[in-house]
Amino acid sequence: MKFPVGLVFITQGVQKAMREDDFRSFIYRSLSRHADGDWGDLSEIDKKINERALKSGGRLLSAYKYNKKKIWIITEGNRAKTTILFPSEY
């Protein structure tokens, strides 16, 4: 782990989708990737922004795709809270 994720919150939409075992596994893998600094499906510019935020204590964003579903994982700058959500829930 490159940083602590703090308390993890999952939106209602993602919770509902997690009823599928494969999607639930995808969420757990994605959270692990996020904490390891693998930012997923972000542009190179956004990945560089995350690398700077990792050092300066800024907010971190990752994006991952599973079939036609895309999730975002956002960790606050103070590392106290991480939220997993669909982009439409932002």
Task: Using brief descriptors, characterize the structure shown.
90 residues, alpha+beta, four-stranded mixed beta sheet, 4 strands
From the spread of the alpha carbons, the general shape counts as globular
Estimate what percentage of residues fall within beta strands: 25-35%
DSSP E strands, number: 4
Rg, Cα atoms, Å: 12 Å
Order of helices and strands: EHHHEEE
Q: Mean pLDDT score, rounded?
A: 97
The largest beta-sheet arranges its strands as 1-4-3-2
Note the main sheet: 4 strands, mixed
End-to-end gap: 25 Å
The class by helix and strand makeup works out as alpha+beta
Poorly predicted runs are none
- Helix content class: 25-40%
The tally of helices reads 3
Overview of the molecule:
By secondary structure, the protein is an alpha+beta fold. The protein has helices spanning 12-17, 21-35, 44-56, and strands at residues 7-10, 60-66, 69-75, 81-85. It has a four-stranded mixed β-sheet with strand order 1-4-3-2. A hairpin with a 2-residue loop joins strand 2 and strand 3 (69-75). The protein starts with 6 loop residues before the first strand and ends in a 5-residue tail after the last strand.
